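User: C-alpha cells for this complex, please. No commentary.
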Amino acid sequence: MINKPLASSNSSRPAVVVGLRGSVWGLYLTLRCRGCRKIFEVYQPTVAGIAVGGHVCPQCGVRSEVLPETLEEALVRFFPSYSYQEMAGLTEEAARLAENWHQVKPLPRVLSYRGINLGEPTERWLAAFFVQGLLQTLKDGGEEA
Ligand SMILES: [Zn+2]
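Assistant:
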C-alpha cells in the first residue's frame, strides 16, 4: 500500500459532518476536513434519496466522502425525527395554506388578471415552501396560531 501525503488531492476519507441544513432543493452539509480541520459547507447531491459523492477541502485538497450511512447518521443527529402522523399533518397543513392564501380578501381582486386569480398556479410550489416553514416551527417549538 502506497502512503500518499495528506495534502494530496487524491486523499479521500470518510466525511466528518458537523452541521446540516435543509432547503427545498436538498441538503447543505457543514464538513470538517480530516486533513486540516477546516470547516466548510457543501451542497450534498442525492440520487433517489441516497447521498452520492465526496467534497474536496478548499484548503488542503483532501476529499471527504459522504456515504449513505454518513448522511443517515447526520440526519438523525441534526433533525429531530417525526412520526408518520406528524409528517402527514404537516403536509396537509401546508396544502391547506397553499390552496387558500390567494382566496383571502383583498388578494383575489389584487391578483386577478382578466378574471383569473394568478395566485392559484403557485399552490404546488408554495406547498413545498410551507412544509419547510412548518418543519422549522416544529423544531423551534413554535405555538399554534
Ligand atoms: Zn483540508
